[in-house]
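Milestone M4 deliverable, item 7.
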Amino acid sequence: MGEVVPLPTSEPAAEERPVLVLDCGGQYSQLIARRVRECRVYSELVPHTITPEALRARDPLALVLSGGPASVYADGAPRVDPGIFELGIPTLGICYGMQLMAQDLRGRRAVREPASGADRLDESPRLGDGAA
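Output delivered:
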């Protein structure tokens, strides 16, 4: 019987492409990268200052923008190059990363006033009401 020769592929397999976690300064950035690896997907933590060209060269499967301690509106808050959103790479923003994506992609963040306790009062019967 002859030897089976795999056909060449033009694109690397998904398991050969990393998920890159862009570190925006959050305390959970390392944990996010580890959780991705625990799902048997190779991941690396990279600085938020990485350029679109450097990202393209890494050929990532996906990007994760981590959380951070700052507000997107604060002076000196971590920024990413908006060009990374034009690369067509699936991107997940977590906490600060999501707010950064919304701002860079011209989204709107609405500030909602906290509801007073009076409009959330639930007077339905409770478990055990009327028990002897």
